[in-house]
Specification:
Layout: H1 13-30, E1 38-40, H2 42-55, H3 58-67, H4 75-90, E2 96-106, E3 112-122, H5 124-127, E4 140-145, E5 152-158
Antiparallel strand pairs: 1-5, 2-3, 4-5
Helix pairs in contact: 1-2, 1-4, 2-3, 2-4
């Protein structure tokens, strides 16, 4: 994998388009079977699967590229784009902490399971900023998108607001 670049390295828009397209497709796949509220991090799922993509070959790699909507991005281009994207997100705002963690483990006879987590932490200076009240009394969709890169960080649906 390519080392994280400095936060001034331009992010290849192809990775943002791929992650967003994959994320929306995943969300649309999960929605009909959701029994209640749903929230996913397309960024985390994409990054975890792209780690696996690095080790795939042949028809498996082709199928993964299609599923991840990578288009013409080579493995090297994808890794470089992810390094620039992560550097941009991790250094975007001194008042926000974005933590991206990916791991891979095996779970008994079920085979290999990939998992990822993305968290957004807010520093005290943001928490003390002006606040507002929002009444969530009906279902709605929401997305958290990075304002600089356009990367889709979180996507969700509040189906049961009670």
């Amino acid at each position: 994998m390519t080392q994280a670049k400095t936060d001034d390295t331009a992010v290849n828009p192809a990775i943002v388009v791929a992650d967003g397209g994959f994320g929306v497709t995943l969300f649309r796949t999960l929605m009909p079977n959701a029994a209640g509220n749903i929230a996913i991090s397309p960024l985390s799922v994409s990054l975890a699967l792209q780690v696996l993509y690095n080790g795939a070959a042949g028809t498996t790699q082709q199928a993964m590229a299609q599923t991840l909507e990578l288009g013409r991005l080579s493995v090297q281009d994808m890794n470089a784009a992810n390094a620039a994207l992560q550097a941009s997100l991790l250094n975007a705002d001194p008042l926000l902490d974005i933590i991206i963690a990916n791991s891979l483990w095996t779970q008994g006879s079920a085979g290999t399971v990939a998992a990822a987590a993305t968290t957004v932490g807010v520093t005290d200076s943001v928490a003390s900023a002006a606040t507002f009240t929002m009444t969530m009394n009906r279902p709605f969709l929401y997305a958290i998108v990075d304002g600089v890169t356009g990367e889709l960080i979180f996507l969700g649906a509040l189906m049961n607001p009670s």
